[in-house]
Description:
By secondary structure, this protein is α/β, with parallel strands linked by helices.
Amino acid sequence: MRNAKHLQNLEPSYIREILSAATHSDTISLAGGLPASEHFPLPLLRTAFNSVTATPALFQYGETRGYGPLLDCITEHYSLLPSQGAMVCNGSQQAIDLIARAYIDPGDTVVMEAPSYLGALQVFALSQAQVKTVPQSAQGPDLEALETLFQRHSVKFLYAVPDFHNPTGLCWSLDCRRSVARLCRQYNVSLIEDAPYRQLRFSGEALPLVSSFCPERAFVLYSFSKIVAPGMRLGLLVGPSSWLTTPEKIKQASDLHSNQPLQAVLLALLNSAQLAAHIEGVCAVYRQRYEALARNLRQHFGQCARFSEVEGGMFIWFYLPADRRCPEPMALAREALSKGVAVVPGDVFYRTDDPLRLSSAPALRLNFSHAQPEQIDCAIARLKNAFDDLST
């Protein structure tokens, strides 16, 4: 059967495709954005699951927006304004899709950072948006380039991951956050602030959401995949209450509502006095693993090891040595996989026709949250071996 016309340019996710190969018993994965499985809050989940089974009504159909007591808790937990509302989604990925289906017409302009989150690139391609990209610095997006895009185009949305950006791991400065919010207000651009890694800070100072400076113009996406467990597929879409009406109708037509028993489990976790300690423990583990990755890159690649220092999240952006003998990122990723380590080439985080893709330094995205320190030691040794084989 012939695919629908709007699917003709939809590219598969390299990361989702590589996950099957990366799960081979001899392969160490630095590819996916996987949390540390051995640090899931299973004791808390076990208690919460047992309590849920005592309430048969939870296993009936529920409200599309979400389980009422959970939404009440979320309003307090995230200090939502009276003008804001929330809707529970099947992960924050569904929230991106609902926004696109509700508000983006073919040809509408969406601005994204370059490189950017692959899942969002796929959604906006599916909605047939015209995607424009803005380069990044260590402080955040290039503000001059961003304003130029806002001036030259009728931009509907700016999509961004300001806290521990996927894929670079960078975190926007306070000044940048204020400036981006000001530009969104000035040029009537709506912000989609994706914040799945925000609670995974292991050093530095926590900064306010960008949307806190322009709440009337912003959606915020939260995910519980990174602090609880991704298999639960629960996330949040937060925004001005009037903005949620259409996404709610679309979700109702799509899946009726998200898993209600698991929403009750999540509520029990959010109300648990032990959750904060769990998140703190996870952050400590990720700091140790990040330091192991940074140490091994410096050890094996020496002065050629260039990467962005991060203060949290799950990723670093590793620049390949600027040398004419340097292998292409995709070729290096394939060679590395043959040697038992999975990494993601930086190319996949750009649109194929994005000029910034051609002008950017070759890089890999490396995940540090999933593998244990001793596995990271082995993985980087294998990566260097693959690099040397292709460079000779």
